[in-house]
Amino acid sequence: MKEIINILSKRYIEVLQKNKEIGTGKYSSSHLINMLNTLNENVEKWSIDKTNRWLGFIQGVMTVYGLLDVDKERDFTRPLFHEYYKKNNIEIPKTLDI
Hints:
The protein is mainly α. The chain has a domain at 2-68. It has four helices and no strands. Helix 1 runs antiparallel to helix 2 (29-42). The longest helix has 18 residues, at 70-87.
């Protein structure tokens, strides 16, 4: 999981830094960057569900502000997670179209 979080953190920090500041308070670029750095520092200590909640919050805020596209991000992250599942003998979830 650490590799995935590292890849995504770098990706998201780069996007956040190259765009103008978004949001305020807990929805601001600077707060999201702090969250990404904290996530990187704790990914091996935290449970996978906490890690994924933080990641989902960051992705959600970035999506609302138009910095990420849900479909493009899914296409980027899916192979990363599927590889992780394979390496760790975790069943790959079925894709659902909603």
